[in-house]
Amino acid sequence: MTVIHSAEFAQEGRELKGSIPLSQLSRLSDLLANTSGEVAWHIESGMDELQRPWLYLEVKGSLQLICQRCLSAAPWQLHAETVLTQFATEEQIDDAEAHDEDLEGILIDPELDIEALVEDEILLALPVALTHDVCGGDDALAKLASDKPNPFAALAQLKTRKAE
Ligand SMILES: [Zn+2]
C-alpha cells in the first residue's frame, strides 16, 4: 500500500509513479473478464494560484472488460487523467465547485491511499456499456463512447502558473 499526506505532498511539489496488478483491485476485478496484467499510475502535484494544494493523477493500462452484448472479453485501453484540488472541509469543496464547474475537490487526507485513489479513478473512467464492434470476430475491437472531459488543459494551466 502506498500512502501519502496529500497536502504536504503537494506543498513539496512531489511526483510519484507506480503500478498495481489488476488482481489487487477488488472492486474493479468483478467487472473484468480477466484480471491478469497491471495498471500504471503517475501523480504530479503543486499549489494553485489560491495556494490550494492539487494532485494530478494519470492511470493507464489494458483492461479486458466484458462485452454487454455477447458477454465475452472485450479489450479496452484505459487512459484516465484528473486534477484534484484539495480542501480542509466539505463546505469549502462545495463552495469551490459551485464557483468553478471544472473543479473537482477532495478532502485533504494525511493518509491518502494511492491504490484506492487509482481504483476510484478507473471505476469513474469505465464506459457505461462496452460492446464489440462485431461480436465473435477474432479481432473484435471494443468501442466506447466516453464524454469524460480531458483535464490536460487544466494541468497545463496549473503548470504555466507555477512557472510564472
Ligand atoms: Zn461482443
TrEMBL record:
InterPro entries the UniProt entry points to: YceD, YceD_bac
Species of provenance: Deefgea tanakiae
Supply the alphabetized keyword list.
Ribosome biogenesis
Does the entry feature the keyword Nucleotide-binding, yes or no? no
Keyword DNA-binding assigned = no
The lineage's top-level taxon is Bacteria
| PANTHER family given in the database record | LARGE RIBOSOMAL RNA SUBUNIT ACCUMULATION PROTEIN YCED
Taxonomically, what lineage is the organism?
Bacteria, Pseudomonadati, Pseudomonadota, Betaproteobacteria, Neisseriales
Instruction: Please describe what this protein does.
Output: Plays a role in synthesis, processing and/or stability of 23S rRNA.
* Pfam families reported for this sequence: YceD
Q: What is this protein called?
A: Large ribosomal RNA subunit accumulation protein YceD
Give the protein family.
Belongs to the DUF177 domain family.
